[in-house]
């Protein structure tokens, strides 16, 4: 059997497939935006799909480790003087001083932290650059039991639970002020793709069907009642006064 190896091309293809899920993206956006301040650090900015939704902020600093993504992000926002594009590894302690100079008050990272090998060091770095009360907004994949070939090929190091997020926050000086599972239906779909169908790529047809038929009723339902399980974890972490 051939070994499945994560590749940048695979990740790009997956992002292209997910563009069809605009209702799901709007749902994630509605969760994240209210918690962000005026000077935002976006980790894993890619080409700027999320950046373009927060151009009203005083400053948006987009980070990515892929040079091509940073170049595209910069090109896509040339007319915006409040957008900065940087090729920076958020898990590298040497990045702290450069980022501190931007006087950031919040961080957003949507479906990226699982790609970073040392998530603890990343959060410790963010603690260093944020003021007391500064916030980190995350959407991250949930439950190790869902981990399958797609996760591996996307370069995911892990999936999370609410308890593992609490442990991560406690170890790095943050306090969860919002923490809940997201996408109850997706939990079962991802499990089936991983363990029954052994899929190595997300299906465009599945994504389109989910976005058109499931999200319109699932979003208001989960806004009223948070589910006991989900495909993802949504969390807002706040910097405590002392670590």
Short structural description:
The chain has one domain: 3-Layer(aba) Sandwich (Rossmann fold). Helix content is 41%, strand content 19%.
Structure description:
By secondary structure, this protein is of the alpha/beta class. It has one domain: Rossmann fold (3-Layer(aba) Sandwich). Helices cover 41% and strands 19% of the residues. Strands 3-2-1-4-5-7-6 form a 7-stranded mixed sheet, sandwiched between helices. The longest helix is centred in the C-terminal third of the chain and has 21 residues. It is globular.
Keywords:
243 residues; alpha/beta; Rossmann fold; 7-stranded mixed β-sheet; 9 helices; 7 strands; globular
Task: List strands and helices in order, with pairings.
Blueprint: H1 8-18, H2 22-32, E1 39-43, E2 59-64, H3 67-76, E3 83-87, H4 96-100, E4 106-110, H5 119-129, E5 135-141, H6 149-154, H7 162-172, E6 174-182, H8 184-196, H9 204-224, E7 232-239
Parallel strand pairs: 1-2, 1-4, 2-3, 4-5
Antiparallel strand pairs: 5-7, 6-7
Helix pairs in contact: 2-9, 5-7
């Amino acid at each position: 059997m051939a070994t499945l190896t994560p590749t940048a091309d695979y990740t790009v293809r997956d992002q292209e497939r997910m563009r069809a899920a605009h209702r799901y993206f709007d749902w994630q956006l509605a969760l994240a935006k209210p918690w962000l301040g005026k000077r935002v650090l976006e980790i894993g900015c890619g080409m700027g799909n999320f950046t373009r939704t927060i151009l009203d902020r005083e400053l948006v600093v987009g980070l990515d480790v892929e040079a091509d993504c940073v170049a595209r992000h910069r090109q896509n926002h040339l007319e915006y003087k409040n957008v900065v594009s940087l090729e920076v590894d958020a898990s590298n302690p040497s990045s702290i001083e450069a980022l501190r100079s931007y006087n950031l008050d919040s961080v957003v990272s949507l479906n990226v932290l699982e790609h970073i090998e040392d998530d603890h060091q990343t959060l410790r770095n963010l603690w260093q650059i944020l003021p007391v009360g500064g916030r980190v907004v995350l959407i991250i994949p949930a439950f190790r039991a869902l981990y399958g070939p797609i996760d591996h090929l996307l370069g995911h190091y892990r999936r999370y639970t609410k308890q593992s997020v609490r442990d991560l926050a406690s170890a790095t000086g943050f306090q969860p002020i919002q923490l809940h599972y997201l996408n109850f239906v997706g939990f079962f779909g991802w499990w089936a793709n991983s363990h029954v169908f052994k899929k190595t790529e997300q299906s465009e047809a599945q994504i389109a069907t989910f976005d058109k038929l499931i999200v319109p009723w699932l979003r208001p339902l989960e806004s009223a009642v948070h589910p006991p399980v989900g495909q993802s974890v949504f969390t807002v972490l706040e910097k405590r006064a002392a670590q």
